[in-house]
């Protein structure tokens, strides 16, 4: 298969800083679009992967899965995009397209294994996939979404992962008027969850470990703010229908399960590497559920982009240059970001 050199930023090993490198991208096949990457968000999953927190990282790794850009080339059979269109790519770049889940638009649950945008074996084209910390990417048109023209592009990038990852469970668990929805953590995912749940009409309680973020949470749309390290505030918190847990490290989930109503659900989207303990008594009393959710399918990713355009929702971002990436990773590790870093990819080309 013919390929071309593409500039990217990645890591050779878990312990070294990210650095500029050259990767090979395939030439567009008949169903592919080539996208010049304009902006790429930085998700905590990028950090987990580079550090090999979950095991299974293949080096060199080029992270990045909140991609917005412009179509620069289309294959002969492409029907959905033309050169010049705005385009978005999230986590999923391929799946079997035959199983029930693919047919239902849940490609992230593909029975035969979906292809992740980076650090994934590319079953169709061979090799390992490389993500959005790069000047361009080539993706099958069926896994590319449209970015509404009205959205501010850099702050729309995080919708491609943070947005869909919280939208999907909020919708699935019927967040809306009359529902008490709790959100744990005001990071990239958490701050998008506040904005999206607010637009759905829910009453939102945010749980944060940071007093500084607590002071900002109402501006983001929270109705009620709880500093989770304050036992008194936790005790006085109203009971929740659903709590969405976005925390990236090991933490005690039982204290949150105790805040659920009867039949309430704690839904985890955060991916701490270590297992979490659940007390049987905590779930048995009140018939409570502990559940999880994984990003969302392609059609639903388009849906959340359109939802955000309709409700004027984008992420609160800090726009950085590619060469600031290692500092951004250090700050993200400490939860020191308001609330998503996004890379201006023009800085990679210079
Ligand atoms: P992030 O921006 O770093 O936000 C995580 C937040 O968790 C922090 O800002 C912090 O909020 C809170 N937190 C951190 N340590 C904590 C602790 N020890 N106890 C309580 N709260 C703590 O990360 P993100 O990009 O939003 O990603 C969050 C997690 O979701 C990561 O594990 C990521 O891999 C995962 N993820 C999963 C999916 C999926 O499909 N399931 C998709 C994307 C990301 P406060 O400062 O407010 O306490
Ligand atoms: Zn992500």
How would you sum up this structure, described in words?
The protein has 350 residues and is of the alpha/beta class. The chain folds into two domains: 3-161 and 316-348, Medium-chain alcohol dehydrogenases, catalytic domain (Quinone Oxidoreductase, Chain A, domain 1, Alpha-Beta Complex); 162-292, Rossmann fold (3-Layer(aba) Sandwich), CATH 3.40.50.720. Helices cover 26% and strands 27% of the residues. Strand 16 (317-321), helix 11 and strand 17 (340-344) form a beta-alpha-beta unit. Helix 4 (162-172) packs across helix 5 (188-200) and helix 4 (162-172) crosses helix 10 (298-311). It is globular and about 60 Å long. The protein starts with a strand and ends with a helix. The structure holds NADP nicotinamide-adenine-dinucleotide phosphate and zinc ion.
Describe this protein with a few key phrases.
350 residues; six-stranded parallel sheet; single chain; binds zinc ion; binds NADP nicotinamide-adenine-dinucleotide phosphate; 27% strand; 12 helices; 2 domains; alpha/beta; Quinone Oxidoreductase, Chain A, domain 1
What number of domains? 2
Please give the oligomerization state of what you see: single chain
What fraction of residues sit in β-strands?
Answer: 25-35%
Distance between the termini: 29 Å
Please tell me what the overall shape is: globular
């Amino acid at each position: 298969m013919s390929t071309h050199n593409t500039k990217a930023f990645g890591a050779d090993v878990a312990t070294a800083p990210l650095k500029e490198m050259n990767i090979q991208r395939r030439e567009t096949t008949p169903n592919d679009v080539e996208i010049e990457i304009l902006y790429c968000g930085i998700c905590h999953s990028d950090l987990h992967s580079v550090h090999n927190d979950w095991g299974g990282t293949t080096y060199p790794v080029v992270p990045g899965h909140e991609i917005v850009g412009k179509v620069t080339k289309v294959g002969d059979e492409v029907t959905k995009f033309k050169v010049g269109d705005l385009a978005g790519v999230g986590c999923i770049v391929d799946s079997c397209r035959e199983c029930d889940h693919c047919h239902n638009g849940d490609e992230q649950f593909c029975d035969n294994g979906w292809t992740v945008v980076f650090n994934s074996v590319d079953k169709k084209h061979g090799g390992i996939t490389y993500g959005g910390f790069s000047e361009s990417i080539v993706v099958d048109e069926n896994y590319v979404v449209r970015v509404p023209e009205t959205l501010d592009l850099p702050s729309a990038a995080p919708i491609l992962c943070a947005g869909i990852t919280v939208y999907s469970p909020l919708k699935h668990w019927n967040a809306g008027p009359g529902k008490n929805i709790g959100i744990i953590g005001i990071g990239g995912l958490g701050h998008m969850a506040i904005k999206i749940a607010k637009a759905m009409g829910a009453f939102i309680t945010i749980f944060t470990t940071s007093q500084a973020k607590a002071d900002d949470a109402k501006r983001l749309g929270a109705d009620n703010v709880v500093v989770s390290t304050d036992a008194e505030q936790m005790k006085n918190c109203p009971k929740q229908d659903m709590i969405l847990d976005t925390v990236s490290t090991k933490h005690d989930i039982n204290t949150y399960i105790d805040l659920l109503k009867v039949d309430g659900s704690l839904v985890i989207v955060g991916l701490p590497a270590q297992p979490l303990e659940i007390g049987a008594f905590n779930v048995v009393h009140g018939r409570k559920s502990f559940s999880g959710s994984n990003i969302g399918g392609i059609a639903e990713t388009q849906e959340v982009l359109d939802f955000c355009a309709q409700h004027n929702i984008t992420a609160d971002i800090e726009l950085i240059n590619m060469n600031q990436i290692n500092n951004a990773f250090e700050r993200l590790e400490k939860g020191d970001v308001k609330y998503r870093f996004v890379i201006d990819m023009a800085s990679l080309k210079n």
